[in-house]
Design goal:
Length: 123
């Protein structure tokens, strides 16, 4: 499909997981509890969401968390693994808007609440 002159096309590799947060000028400007996660099928994919306190070196002492996302292309499902780690002020319950890109302009969207435990979402 041709892109209009005023729109820059974005090419994404099949088997990518891309998080999208709010538009901000600095890390703590807006709440990050509701992230959009774009899934581009066509191959298996993994992504780890890393978070820490944003304003110090406590991550060097283990004050951070990681949430691993795994896309299984054959099963057409996303696994969000159990959260690893913790830190002061961590978002314990968060929303994810999961978008699976399915064609040039179509996508499947699922909204979920994640509380830190493993979840498997079928598309």
């Amino acid at each position: 499909k041709k892109a209009p002159i005023d729109i820059l096309p974005l090419y994404v590799k099949a088997g990518s997981i891309v998080p999208v947060g709010p538009k901000v000028d600095y890390a703590e400007q807006k709440d990050w509890s509701n992230l959009k996660i774009n899934i581009y099928p066509g191959a298996d994919a993994e992504f780890t969401l890393y978070e820490d306190e944003n304003d110090n070196y406590n991550y060097e002492k283990g004050a951070y968390s990681e949430i691993k996302f795994v896309w299984d292309n054959n099963k057409q499902q996303l696994t969000i693994e159990k959260r690893q780690g913790k830190f002061e002020g961590m978002i314990k319950n968060r929303s994810f808007q999961l978008h699976k890109e399915t064609a040039e302009t179509t996508k499947t969207t699922k909204k979920i609440t994640y509380k830190g435990d493993k979840m498997v979402i079928a598309f």
